[in-house]
Amino acid sequence: MYFNTPLRLEPRFSKRFALLLIIIHGGAILLLIPLALAFLIKLSLAIIILLSTKYSKDNYLLLHNHPLYGCTIRYDEQENRLRVFLKSGIEVKIASSYYSPQLVVIKISNVKKAMIIFPDTLDMRIFRQLRVHLGTN
Length: 137
Hints:
Helix content is 39%, strand content 22%. By secondary structure, the protein is an alpha+beta fold. Helix 1 (15-32) runs antiparallel to helix 2. The mean pLDDT is 87.
């Protein structure tokens, strides 16, 4: 079963991913408290964790600046493969992808950061179709 209409990826803000980032980074900062380290070292580690939080938020949570935001994915029946077109109309190749019921990760050639898509960021039909077709690609 292949989709006949192209999929347009415009993921919204993911509350699930934001909560996951808060739990991971907040837990890491809380784990610093009982450690027998000097205050200055704990403070330095907490600042590093906060910088990691900002990096994760900017690069993986807020997807509006990602090259794949607004891309169109079509299935080419003649070539039996997915074709990805950026907003600019340029076709790119999917370098790697991972999918599960909880998330989809797509990485394209020549772009360092992957796009992480949680189910709450897309319409469920589009999310399901994306998972299915990445699995058949």
